[in-house]
């Protein structure tokens, strides 16, 4: 097995991929990439604008294109958008160069976090009843997250540093298993 130098964080919206990814990258001295930010740069518009003007399918095309590109990088932590698991090809790309870690938390914590950010930032949750939407999407996506990786971390009772430490250990043990 070839050593993988990247860590890709997957998981539902509001599970902390960006905050944790940035801290992890600093600790491990790796570059940090937020896939959604690359999409916004490529499209020259915000995620809500892409959804509103071009539709979700176009957004997923950008996501796939950029996922392929970042999978060719080395020594980076990649924070993926919550829907990255919907296209298996994305997971296949990521797995070529990254250890995949899935962050999980409760629907209540997700709701609190997305409310703090403003639900208009997340087009899929910008609905009259975002709590119900979260529960429904989580139920639908659970098998996709489970199939994507064996490494799952429930972040609901952990601090950022505790999560980062858990990921560091997983990454190091995966590195020593590879040869
Ligand atoms: C999405 C998650 C968002 C963003 C887009 C779609 C999803 O990213 O990619 O709004 O389908 O779950 P975050 O998980 O970073 O919020």
Overview of the molecule:
The model has no long low-confidence stretch (mean pLDDT 95). This protein has 179 residues and is α/β, with parallel strands linked by helices. It has eight helices and five strands. The longest helix has 19 residues. The structure holds shikimate-3-phosphate (S3P). Shikimate-3-phosphate binds next to loops.
How many helical stretches? 8
How far do the termini sit from each other?
5 Å
Spell the H/E element sequence. Answer: EHEHHHEHEHHEH
Q: Which structural category do the helix and sheet elements fall into?
A: alpha/beta
Please indicate the percent range of residues in DSSP E strands (runs of 2 or more): 5-15%
State the helical fraction: 55-70%
Q: What do the pLDDT scores average to?
A: 95
| Biggest sheet descriptor | 5 strands, parallel
The order of strands across the largest sheet is 2-3-1-4-5
- Say which molecules are bound, naming each kind only once: shikimate-3-phosphate
Stretches where pLDDT is under 50 for at least 5 consecutive residues are none
Shape: globular
Whole-angstrom Rg: 16 Å
Q: How many strand elements? A: 5
């Amino acid at each position: 097995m070839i050593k993988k130098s990247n860590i890709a964080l997957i998981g539902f919206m509001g599970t902390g991929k960006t905050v944790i990814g940035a801290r992890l990258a600093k600790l491990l001295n790796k570059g940090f990439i937020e896939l959604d930010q690359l999409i916004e740069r490529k499209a020259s518009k915000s995620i809500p604008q892409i959804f509103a003007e071009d539709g979700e399918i176009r957004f997923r095309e950008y996501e796939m294109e950029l996922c392929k590109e970042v999978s060719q990088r080395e020594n980076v932590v990649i924070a993926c958008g919550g829907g990255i698991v919907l296209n298996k090809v994305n997971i296949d790309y990521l797995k070529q160069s990254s250890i995949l870690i899935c962050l999980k938390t409760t629907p209540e914590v997700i709701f609190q976090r997305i409310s703090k950010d403003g639900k208009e930032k997340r087009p899929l949750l910008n609905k009259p009843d975002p709590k119900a939407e979260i529960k429904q999407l989580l139920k639908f996506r659970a098998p996709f997250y489970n199939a994507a990786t064996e490494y799952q971390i429930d972040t609901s009772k952990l601090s950022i540093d505790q999560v980062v430490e858990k990921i560091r250990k997983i990454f190091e043990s995966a590195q020593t298993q590879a040869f």
